[in-house]
Design goal:
The complex is a heterodimer of chains A (about 40) and B (about 575). Chain A contains one helix and no strands. Chain A has about 40 residues and is mostly helical. The longest helix of chain B has about 35 residues. Chain B starts with a helix and ends in a 5-residue tail after the last helix. The chains are: A mainly alpha (about 40), B mainly alpha (about 575). At the A-B interface, helix 1 of A face helix 3, helix 4, helix 15 and helix 18 of B.
């Protein structure tokens, strides 16, 4: 039972980090676009 | 404090300075691809892994590769520890590691933390030590170097978000940097008396007639990468205070040099990569000033000792046959100067190896290791992570300097704009949030307080240190906190994961963003990043961010404890 929780938790964590990568990418893209628009 | 103690600190400092350039040059050649003496093996690994070494990965792909690699190796280690009983090289027939400790330990070694809530000699088989823990010692260190080199590439070149190839950096870092250096150091350590065998534990009769079990094992090979990779996890529970891990004054010196060698050298590498060698030395100087200040404070606090001891007639003044000061928790072999120096070095870097128990330091002496980690472990820092932590601070420094003079901040010809500052702030804010929230939850819950062995401000320091060490991926323990519970194993393991990867993602994103920018030539208005003014401003930013974030917690822990001790009360 605990094995399942820890393994699932680890997989969820790394999936979250991959989503974080995508989030940072979109943040950079949005900010770049805003900066270009402002300029 | 003694002249002998200062002489040893001065020799160590000079050796770090002397090592910086040759080590930096070696690192540069490893990562710029000009070192080839293991190329047949390198090519074989790429072919076996299906890697195209010519691929220049976008930062998102670079980060994803790193995350997937770390996830896979962490899960593999979890399973290996759970199945330890069935695996070979287990002469003591040690049982499977519990689920909670397997989680924490696999998270700990994957993240280069190497926090150990277990007793190595009674928990881990030789197989687990060598194929899982030592493996992660190499890999987590190589991953840290990947982060620093990728960020450096992003700053140094214009490549539309492309930062190199994670798999190539990982393989080259392991093959050319960590493995050869570890082999050389392991041989020297073995010559000095660090044991290296697969024997069953020895049962000995002591002079008093008692029976003592003396643990054995392949220690030298693990010890070398433990220090070079700023991992810190000891083969034995006593870590580098154990005579089989750290038997002589020379091994003690070599251990500390091994911890600082790569983090110091990579500042030189970075200077060459960005074609501004003086900037690399400026970073080195800022790191050295902070290192020296920490050593001075710790050494002074420990050499002065506890005033309550002096009040009770204990001679705390150093003399020929008496080290004086506070010797509680310290090895007589190393004395006060080398214990203070080691504690500073191991927490400046993200190593976590200890040759003395930080819990037994005076409150101010123990606060320095705590603060060193809380500043972000950028005082030379962990392999790779020290440099990228420092570069985040450089970006903030340049940003603040730009605001002061009313110019768009620029760093090495690249404009620092909103996305870069956002990534730097995500990095800077996530770290203290992990520490302070984790510590706050632990002091509020019975499960968190149940692990405490000391009351009052010292108890708070123990909890704060545990989360600081976990989030900072340091791994040194303050001791005094029983971490072998479901609560602490799970909380600290999770903190380690966030402390490594939730900081890594914005850092690598920053590198990606910067790599997309034009490099403008320096002008009269460009803020210089080489002179004493820059070094002082950088140190100021590091200290202000650290002080503003952690001072309230420190005031309730070691600061109030120091004042209480002066007033005659200890905890």
């Amino acid at each position: 039972m605990y094995d399942l929780l820890y393994i699932a938790g680890t997989i969820v964590f790394f999936a979250l980090m991959l989503a974080y990568v995508a989030g940072c990418r979109s943040l950079g893209r949005d900010a770049d676009a805003a900066a270009e628009k402002g300029a | 404090m003694t002249a002998n103690g200062w002489l040893q600190i001065a020799i160590f400092s000079l050796l770090v300075l002397a090592l910086t350039r040759p080590m930096g040059l070696y690192i540069l050649r490893v990562y710029d691809g000009t070192m080839h003496w293991l190329s047949p093996l390198e090519r074989l690994i790429y072919r076996a892994g299906g890697v195209d070494p010519a691929e220049d990965q976008h930062w998102t792909r670079y980060a994803a590769s790193l995350l997937i690699f770390s996830a896979a190796t962490m899960l593999l280690t979890y399973l290996a520890l759970r199945m330890q009983r069935l695996l070979p090289l287990n002469p003591q027939h040690l049982a499977a590691v519990t689920a909670r400790q397997s989680f924490e330990t696999s998270a700990s070694f994957t993240t280069n933390t190497n926090w150990q809530s277990y007793v190595g000699e009674t928990t881990m088989s030789y197989f687990s030590q060598m194929t899982q823990l030592a493996y992660h010692n190499f890999m987590s260190a190589a991953v840290g170097m990947c982060g620093a080199i990728a960020l450096a590439r992003g700053i140094a070149r214009r490549s539309a978000g492309r930062l190199g190839n994670f798999w190539v950096d990982l393989v080259r870092g392991t093959l050319y940097l960590f493995v050869p250096l570890s082999i050389v150091l392991a041989l020297v350590l073995a010559q000095q008396g660090v044991i290296q065998n697969f024997s069953a534990y020895v049962t000995a009769k002591t002079l008093e007639g008692a029976t003592q079990v003396i643990a054995m094992g392949p220690v030298a090979s693990q010890e070398a990468i433990k220090q070079l990779g700023t991992n810190g996890g000891g083969f034995f529970n006593a870590n580098a205070a154990h005579p089989f891990e750290n038997p002589t004054p020379l091994t003690n010196l070599l251990s500390m040099l091994a911890i600082f060698a790569i983090p110091a050298g990579i500042t030189w590498t970075y200077g060459r990569m960005v074609k501004n060698a003086r900037h690399g030395w400026a970073l080195w100087s800022a790191m050295f000033v902070l290192f020296f200040a920490g050593t001075l404070i710790t050494y002074r606090a420990e050499a002065r000792g506890n005033p309550l001891h002096a009040a009770r007639g204990v001679n705390v003044v150093a003399s020929g046959g008496n080290p004086g000061g506070n010797m509680e928790g310290k090895e007589v072999r190393f004395g006060i100067a080398n214990s203070a120096l080691y504690a500073t070095v191991t927490t400046d870097a993200s190593c976590g190896a200890v040759n003395a128990m930080h819990d037994s330091f005076t409150p101010v002496g123990g606060m320095v290791p705590l603060v060193n980690i809380q500043l972000g472990e950028l005082i030379f820092g962990g392999v790779g992570s020290g440099l990228y932590g420092m570069l985040i601070m450089v970006v903030l420094t340049v940003f603040i300097a730009g605001l002061m003079v009313g110019r768009t901040p620029e760093y090495l010809g690249k404009k620092i704009q909103a996305p870069e500052v956002q990534m730097a702030m995500l990095y800077v804010l996530a770290f203290p949030a992990l520490i302070l929230l984790g510590a706050a939850v632990s002091v509020m819950l019975p499960a968190g307080l149940a692990g405490l062995n000391n009351a009052g401000p010292h108890g708070l320091s123990e909890i704060l240190y545990a989360y600081t060490s976990a989030a900072g991926n340091n791994g040194s323990a303050f001791a005094g906190l029983t971490g072998t519970t479901y609560f602490y194993n799970t909380m600290l393991g999770t903190t380690m994961l966030f402390g490594r990867f939730a900081l890594f993602v914005p850092m690598i994103a920053l590198g990606g963003f910067l790599s997309s920018k034009k490099i403008a030539p320096a002008s009269a208005g460009t803020f210089p990043v080489t002179g004493p003014l820059f070094v002082m401003l950088l140190i100021g930013v590091i200290l202000i961010i650290g002080a503003l974030t952690f001072f309230p917690a420190l005031a309730l822990g070691p600061v109030v404890e120091q004042l209480s001790m002066a007033a005659g009360r200890v905890f």
